[in-house]
Structures are given as structure tokens and as C-alpha cells.
């Protein structure tokens, strides 16, 4: 009797965890990475935050903000940011592991300051990328991603996600 009860309890726990894996469509996350802009000599540290909604196992939408880089070019301080909205196509490889592609629209903003004066400019366009995600639990995941926010800009990042 105890053996049958244990098996029934195990099946119940597994079915709840399987339901929990798909029952958390809203998620948030943060990442840190490296940005390469063709006009700059070396890679710069990036960091960002994102929020998403998973419509199904294969489709999600995300909004994101990322600090692409901060650098000094001589006496001029330059700051680059990205604001984006994207659709993700997701291919589950296993229950925990996913590969995804990103297609979206982003606005890039560069701000420069020199001797108390400042100016900025924006550019908008297509954003695309590819990545992988691993779900440690139904709520916590980790991802690696490559994004191309502009023709002269590449970003590699590693991040964490939390679904609720």
C-alpha cells in the first residue's frame, strides 16, 4: 500500500511540475555581455533588462532596454543604449533546453558630452538574434544570446530569467 501511495505521490508531483513549466507565461530577466561597434577599437561591457510573455511553447514577445556601451574617445564621453521590442521563435530541444531566434525593432541612442556640452542622436531599425536557454526550474532559467542591433554593432550576452 505504501509503495502504491509513493508512486501516486511521485506522479502527482511530476504532473504539477510539468504544468508549472508551462503555467508561467510572464517572465523578466537581466543580462550582461559584450558589445562590439565597428568604429570602436575594443569590445565594451553591456548590461540590460527585459520582460516577456510566452504565448505558447514556440512563441514569445519581449521588450528590453540595454546599456550597449560607455566609452571615452579622447575628451569626449559617449554612451550607447538600446530599446527594443521583439518576437521570439522558440524550438524546444528538451523539457529544459530551448533554441530561439529573435526578430524585432529597436531604437539605438548615442549620447556624447564634452566640456559641459552634450548632444545625442538616434537610429531605429531591425533587430535580430539567436540564442539558447536552459530552464533550471519552472521559474528560473539562464540564456546565452547573440544580437545584431545595427549593421555595425554586435552584442553577446549571458542572462538569467525568472518566470512568474
Describe the strand arrangement of the main beta sheet, using strand numbers.
Answer: 1-2-3-4-5-6-7-8
Q: Report the biggest beta sheet as strand number plus sense, adding barrel if it closes.
A: 8 strands, antiparallel, barrel
- Backbone CA Rg: 20 Å
Overall geometric form? elongated
Give the uncertain stretches in residue-range form: 15-22
Distance between the termini: 37 Å
Task: Give the helices and strands, then pairings.
Layout: H1 2-22, E1 26-37, E2 44-54, E3 59-73, E4 76-92, E5 97-114, E6 117-135, E7 140-150, E8 153-163
Antiparallel strand pairs: 1-2, 1-8, 2-3, 3-4, 4-5, 5-6, 6-7, 7-8
Question: Which features characterize this protein?
Answer:
164 residues, mainly beta, 8-stranded antiparallel β-barrel, single chain, 8 strands, 70% strand
In short:
With 164 residues, the chain is mainly beta. The chain has one helix spanning 2-22, and strands at 26-37, 44-54, 59-73, 76-92, 97-114, 117-135, 140-150, 153-163.
Task: Give your account of this protein's structure.
The protein is 13% helix and 70% strand. It is mainly β. About 5% of the residues have low confidence. It is elongated, with a radius of gyration of 20 Å. It is built from one helix and eight strands, in the order αββββββββ.
Amino acid at each position: 500500500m505504501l509503495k502504491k501511495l509513493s508512486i501516486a505521490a511521485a506522479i502527482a508531483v511530476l504532473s504539477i511540475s510539468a504544468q508549472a513549466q508551462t503555467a508561467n507565461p510572464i517572465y523578466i530577466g537581466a543580462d550582461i555581455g559584450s558589445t562590439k561597434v565597428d568604429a570602436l577599437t575594443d569590445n565594451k561591457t553591456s548590461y540590460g533588462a527585459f520582460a516577456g510573455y510566452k504565448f505558447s511553447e514556440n512563441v514569445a514577445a519581449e521588450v528590453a532596454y540595454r546599456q550597449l556601451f560607455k566609452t571615452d574617445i579622447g575628451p569626449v564621453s559617449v554612451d550607447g543604449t538600446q530599446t527594443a521590442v521583439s518576437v521570439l521563435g522558440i524550438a524546444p530541444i528538451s523539457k529544459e533546453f530551448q533554441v530561439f531566434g529573435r526578430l524585432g525593432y529597436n531604437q539605438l541612442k548615442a549620447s556624447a558630452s564634452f566640456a559641459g556640452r552634450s548632444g545625442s542622436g538616434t537610429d531605429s531599425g531591425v533587430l535580430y538574434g539567436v540564442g539558447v536557454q536552459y530552464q533550471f526550474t519552472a521559474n528560473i532559467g539562464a540564456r546565452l544570446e547573440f544580437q545584431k542591433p545595427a549593421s555595425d554593432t554586435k552584442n553577446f550576452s549571458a542572462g538569467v530569467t525568472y518566470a512568474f
